[in-house]
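Table 4 source record.
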Amino acid sequence: MGFWSHKRLFLAFLILASAIDGALGDAMVSGTVFCDQCKDGQRSLFDYPIYGIKVTMACADSNGQITMSREETTNWFGNYAMRFDGAPDLSNCYAEISSNGQSSNGCGAAAGPAQKLKLMFRMFDMEIYSVDSLLSQPAQPMSFCPRSTNPMPAPVNPVRPPVPVSPPPFKLPPIPRLPPLPPLPPMPPVPFLEASACTHQYWTMPEYKCYWRAVNPEMKVAVVFGLLAARRYGTDMSLWQGLQGRGDPYRTLLREGTTALLNSYNSLEFSYNSISVVTHMNWALMGSQRSVLLTALRFKRANSGYGHDTCKFTPCK
């Protein structure tokens, strides 16, 4: 790494330190639960994150007695996050799947082994722990899973088979020409591929609640937008409450950022994708109040469609 790369890394460190300086110490634990479709006990190409799985984190003393435990449910991305006040020592803690919760996809018949917590970051009395992927398994492996990864050994002394005698060629009788197929009906419109931008007022109307897809109104702002959002808005504020914000520049940023995130999941043609919405949100929270207002204004213009994209919502059935 060159000299200027070191300087940029140090500058990013100073910005993050200034953003969290003076905050009370706490610890964050996060991880992901995957559906082990082939029941091979490891992450593979066929596995995917699973929603609605309950995860228990427990800590034991030297005698094996449980001293602290916490339970959380995975979100639509298969992620879970737990926050502990006062930065306790979590070095002797582990996480495991406790039940399949609200999951209805048939991948909660069995659970993989528990995983120990790993300390990833510690600074200013703040600690961040991660957990290796937890696995939830169906009752039986899926039919498309490979049966065996070990090839059959070749014989030591292979016997050369006799050369077959080719039979005389056989000619099929001519096949009559089939009538032409009728034309296919036109494809129905795909809403996800259409350009659509909806303001926060639309997202709070009950007749459009079916458009909340990747996230739900009760999800916490801290889980969706990360640690900086947790510092600014707390760990109890939901996305639905974030849509009600107004007046204060930071609440306006949260309202328009949440609206932009919902629009990015609803339309592939929206100006921001979901990752860029979270990135711009965190950049604004690390900057000045002027940066907060500018980012909120850019989100608001995108949510209004820049005057040419309209909201394609239809009332839910």
